[in-house]
Design a protein that fits this description.
2 copies of one chain form a homodimer. Chain A is mainly α. Chain A has a domain at 3-149. Chain A contains 20 helices and 3 strands. Chain A has helices at 3-30, 37-55, 59-68, 75-92, 96-119, 122-147, 151-159, 165-191, 205-219, 255-273, 289-303, 307-321, 330-337, 354-370, 378-389, 416-435, 439-444, 449-458, 468-476, 483-494; strands at 226-230, 236-239, 242-247. The first copy, chain A, has a 3-stranded mixed β-sheet with strand order 1-3-2. In chain A, helix 1 packs antiparallel against helix 2 and helix 8 (165-191) runs parallel beside helix 20 (483-494). The longest helix of chain A is centred in the first third of the chain and has 28 residues, at 3-30. Chain A is globular and about 70 Å long. The A-B interface holds A 12-13, 16-17, 19-20, 23-24, 27, 31-36, 39-40, 42-47, 49-50, 222-227, 239-242, 279-280 and B 12-13, 16-17, 19-20, 23-24, 27, 31-36, 39-40, 42-47, 49-50, 222-227, 239-242, 279-280. Chains A, B: This is Metal-dependent carboxypeptidase.
């Protein structure tokens, strides 16, 4: 057995155990009874430590060196090997007891958050969130030393391989140079038009679910390889080849659950389109979170808030809910989909204000990781930042600094990928329409196959065989920038 | 760290990984989309092999020897150590590649069975079942050599620690000496009474579920530590501290789902009553399958087919389904619960004919394991055996040799524990009522606390700190025999 083959076999096992961890995570959010949280945290930790032990096996250093000197490797094997090394570097930076402690503390805090958010009880959440933050900083410290980078970049690299705060500062700086002006102009423009009518509810949950499933079928989601369920915070999870998305329902509107399903389906199509022959290998995984988010936003924001989409979607929704009249026209529902508002909740935000929500979180988490902002001061800093960036102040922490699952579950360094994803989505959709001009007219018929085909070839099937930057450049002919996103906002909201 | 402490730590991890495997198994039967079966089989196998590696770590032999020479161990630690050795013996008997191959083949066959049974396609199932049987025999061979026992006893020990076919032959022989006569007499006796009336359906599934949940609450099931769902074959699964039962519903009768829920709740109460401080240790697990089945049958058959139970249950069912009239009286529903019939399906069988179904399977699987019966001849042998033992012949394999999940999923040597459990249940319930005379009158009020209290103390809380035989003898004052079961059948069906 060559050194590379040995690594391949070892990472096959690791990949499958990670898939198991993915299933546990899905169950925890969707199915698990509340009293099982502590036991589940310990089970999850045992699995994570087992994976960590395999990643930090002392034999790996020699195997990596041996494989890297093997000239017979194919380009794909070489790319896989580079990802194996990246995995190994992340794992060896952190001691096993810290990995185990983090898993327990994160699971415990996440469960507490579910209740504390409902109760608007920041004081109840804070001690557990402090434990999470302490261990996240300890992890960042360990990785930063190994990689020779800042604490924040060490965390960012977990979600966005090769990502640098310096680059994000540049992109977000470009964005911030026109965004406040665009928000105001979009709102002003909107005020000159008739307000969108709200279809009359209530909208039964089973019908909302049926509508979501219709869209999932149209988009090409394979229900023999995935599910749609309900959770507090919508997500796309499960395991490779068994991709499970969630949404949440309110009976006074179907719009949020519908857009949530479209968003998560975008994530799911990426997962289901990854190269199946490399399913359990590092190079067979999704490239990183900004590209992942680009896939959800390309579906939700670019494709499914277009005028063409509502030609398909409006009659379907009217049929399922038995709606009729001016609130149910494609034109009205499209106008509803493009409503811009200075709102409190990130996941409900429109695409014009969304980047402002993300910039806030990015600034705050950088400050907390750097030790420049304490959890005592977080609610105040949040509210100040909301005033400055979005122009509204939350009346309660429930709708303020407690709204997101990310920090309680230990996902620090994740937030900027949302807006990098939005910019990537705009650039990719522009390129896709240029390459396959019939994409919009086919979407109007409910046929997403031309779009999905382009994405399968240019994004999904690439796995992690190239860097995010190389994949985006190859697909669009240029590096990621703000131009396509800016043009998109102008065309849609300011014209 | 002492040798014992080291073993304790290692088995803590193993216990948690087994809990994870339990969750995966639940998901596979209840939630997983069909197209994910192959990937899931591979994930499950990776987890099983990981557990197997930990159980067969070469360091364990010395640690076991060291711990067994440690005079400072408490009696509980010593009992735990004995269970650790038993686990180790089972694991070291079987090579890792056989464990992995079995997991894949079993998962694949189980999924095939789900469809093949629906299609009545024994020919389609047979090749995969042959693979399962081949690997089961290979496993039995490896264990039999290690333990110096027969192939069948080696398999039996996996489900019934210390169980011997010789003892089962004796118990089942005692049973067979009176059972055919009892079946005939019970049917004759029944014919002298008015037939039970069947309440008119349909019975909506949501109401059946609501009724099942009412019973689960009454029995003391903690819904913050478990769930009720649906699967093709009802079971009790999940993980320690997160115990999940399933049932299946038909809308023409609520009786089967109700009895299924009561049965699985009996299993669940045992799991939830195990000593929590030892949750992930071998001695903290349920003792074995005959004791497990005794707990489900004590609830379903002994307690919940009594006249007292229907004083509580009949008005509740009538209220939920809006039923009234003679079919809904406690007396009629009780008579319905005691109907004896020579039926085709084991899981629907009454407690008089049930042992005949089990003796058939026990004989057939012993013959198949011994190599005296081929899968080609199984359907014929099944039908012959049904004629002889139960007195009816299935019109199709779907309702014949394909009806059970056990063989397709690789659980050979399991069946006899059902009837050993039935005998144990009778003996335990007799002892419980002698010790706590108010048990029946409290059941009539829907109060199961006195019964649950006795079970918690005498069975559930014992974990695996003593042998099945010692637990039964301590709880009832005598070793397991057929007398209590025989008396029970006489009193209920022949008087």
């Amino acid at each position: 057995m060559t050194a590379y083959t040995s690594l391949h076999t070892r990472f096959d096992r690791i990949g499958k155990l990670r898939a198991v961890a993915g299933m546990l995570g899905w169950d925890m959010a969707v199915m698990m009874p509340t009293g099982s949280a502590e036991a589940r945290g310990a089970q999850y930790a045992a699995l994570e430590v087992t994976i960590h032990e395999k990643l930090t096996d002392p034999a790996l250093a020699d195997l990596l060196a041996g494989a890297e000197g093997d000239n017979a490797l194919s380009p794909q094997e070489r790319a896989n090997l580079a990802e194996i090394r990246r995995n190994w570097l992340h794992a060896t930076a952190v001691p096993a007891d810290l990995v185990e402690a983090s898993a327990i503390v994160n699971a415990d805090c996440e469960m507490t958050w579910r209740q504390a958010r409902a109760d608007n009880d920041y004081a109840g959440l804070k001690p557990k969130l402090q434990k999470v933050l302490d261990l996240v900083r300890e992890t960042a410290q360990a990785k930063a030393e190994k990689f020779g980078c800042s604490l924040y970049d060490a965390l960012l690299d977990q979600y966005e391989p090769g990502g640098k705060a310096e680059d994000i500062d540049k992109l977000f700086g470009d964005l911030a140079s026109f965004l406040p002006d665009y928000i105001q102009r979009a709102i002003d423009k909107q005020a000159t038009r008739p307000a969108a009518l709200l279809p009359d509810g209530p909208f039964p949950i089973d019908k909302q679910k049926a509508l979501g499933e219709k869209f999932m079928h149209a988009l090409g989601f394979d229900f023999t390889r995935g599910r749609l369920d309900v959770s507090t915070h919508p997500f796309c999870g499960g395991a490779p080849g068994d991709v499970r998305i969630t949404t949440r329902y309110g009976t006074d509107s179907f719009f949020e659950s519908m857009m949530g399903v479209l968003h998560e389906t975008g994530h799911a199509l990426y997962e289901l389109g990854l190269p199946a022959d490399w399913r359990d290998q590092p190079a067979g995984q999704a490239r990183g979170m900004s590209l992942h988010e680009s896939q959800s936003l390309l579906i939700e924001m670019q494709a499914c808030r277009s005028a063409e989409f509502f030609q398909f979607a409006a009659p379907l929704a009217a049929e399922i809910f038995g709606g009729s009249g001016p609130a149910w026209t494609a034109e009205n529902l499209h106008r509803r989909a493009l409503t811009v508002e200075r709102g409190l909740i990130r996941v409900n935000a429109d695409e014009v204000t969304y980047p402002a929500h993300v910039i806030l979180r990015y600034r705050l988490e950088r400050a907390m990781i750097a030790g420049d902002l304490s959890l005592d001061d977080l609610p105040g800093a949040w509210n100040d930042g909301m005033q400055e960036l979005v122009g509204v102040v939350p009346p309660s922490d429930k709708d303020g600094c407690m709204q997101d699952i990310h920090w309680p579950m230990g996902a620090w360094g994740y937030f900027p990928t949302y807006t990098m994803g939005a910019m990537t989505a705009a650039q990719l959709f522009q390129a896709a329409k240029l390459a396959v001009p019939e994409i919009p007219v086919e979407i109007a018929k409910g046929n997403f196959a031309p779009l999905l085909g382009w994405l399968r070839t240019n994004i999904h099937g690439k796995g992690s065989f190239a860097s995010t930057a190389d994949i985006v450049t190859a697909a669009t002919g240029k590096p990621l920038g703000v131009d396509a996103f800016r043009t998109h906002l102008e065309t849609r909201y300011l014209a």
